[in-house]
Design brief:
Blueprint lengths: L6 H4 L17 H23 L5 H8 L2 H32 L4 H16 L2 H9 L7 E5 L6 E6 H4 L2 H26 L3 H9 L4 H31 L11 H12 L2 H30 L11 H21 L1
Antiparallel strand pairs: 1-2
């Protein structure tokens, strides 16, 4: 007969294996790498802080200047408006690409091909100088002299509007691919079941498919929003009075290029950090029920472990 007891159980006066404390494996290499990285970071920050060529006094003078806040306002509304335009138009193009109509499919493919295949900087310059191609913007009946509306292109396409069109149309090409991937990730049986209940295709897409596709759409779309915020710096080539345009106007006068770029970098980092907070919240909301929804970052695990250890120590002291 085989004895199923553990060695600890057969010895008198010893504890059971259930009472033994489990000690995790020590990853000394990871700790050494973390310490080395922190030392390198501290050295870099210290070097920048003591560098007189950065002129931190100039950075402090312009960090909260009115000209900077005017540029920030333009950057923010350009980001929001371009993302709304890109998301709305991108969703329409994604549906067109999934359509069985060869005309709609072809037009959607042509749009994505043009706006995703040419650099954003080229598109911004093109819209900024569109008056060189068309002096007037006309709305009427094609191939006739009937005109309902006519205006000068330079009057309609101000630098800000030209920047909005370039950013929004370029974003629509990328957003359409993200939305299309999200729609295709939904089980076709969902749409078939809704169709069997008598729901129309547009209602099925709005009430059944798109809400489920948001789990796939939200993470890359959040990254696109952050990328859009940074891409607004490119509109400085047509003087759209965004943050980067105003920064360039300042260092063109005082020749303090590096300090002014530090000012721009600080504000871009601050805005990206603020945008990351709602993105993480949306990802958790639409990712509920998935395996990665409960993922906890290493920093939160570290803080949670520290709080747990403090709680245990306080309980032991109270005893």
């Amino acid at each position: 007969m085989i004895d199923t007891k553990s060695p600890a159980d057969t010895t008198t006066g010893t504890t059971s294996t259930r009472d033994l404390e489990v000690v995790p494996v020590r990853n000394y290499g990871r700790w050494i790498a973390a310490v080395a990285s922190l030392l390198a970071l501290v050295g870099l920050v210290g070097s920048l802080a003591k560098n007189d060529n950065l002129h931190w006094d100039i950075v402090g003078d312009y960090l909260f200047a009115d000209l900077i806040f005017d540029g920030l306002a333009t950057t923010l509304w350009l980001t929001a408006a371009a993302m709304l335009l890109g998301l709305a138009l991108g969703t329409l193009i994604a549906v067109m690409r999934l359509s069985s109509s060869p005309v709609l499919y072809g037009l959607a493919n042509a749009f994505v091909w043009v706006f995703r295949g040419t650099p954003l900087l080229v598109q911004i310059i093109f819209w900024g100088y569109a008056a060189a191609l068309y002096k007037y913007v006309k709305v009427g009946i094609p191939f006739t002299d009937v005109t309902f509306f006519q205006a000068e292109t330079n009057t309609l396409l101000t630098p800000a509007i030209a920047a909005l069109l370039a950013l929004g149309l370029n974003e629509a090409a990328y957003a359409s691919e993200i939305v299309r991937a999200g729609i295709q990730s939904v089980d076709p049986g969902q749409a078939e079941a809704a169709h069997s209940l008598g729901m129309r295709p547009a209602l099925i897409m709005r009430r059944i498919v798109l809400p489920q596709a948001m789990r796939v759409i939200i993470p890359p779309m959040g990254n696109e929003t952050i990328n859009m915020l940074k891409m607004t710096a490119l509109v400085s080539v047509i003087s759209a009075h965004d943050l980067m345009s105003n920064i360039q106007d300042v260092y063109a006068q005082n020749y303090q290029v590096i300090p002014m770029l530090v000012v721009a970098s600080i504000w871009y980092l601050a805005l990206v950090t603020l945008l990351s907070v709602p993105q993480a919240g949306l990802e958790r909301r639409y990712g509920r029920g998935t395996t990665r929804a409960g993922h906890v970052s290493p920093l939160r695990r570290l803080l949670g472990g520290a709080v747990e250890r403090l709680g245990k120590n306080s309980k032991e002291q109270n005893r």
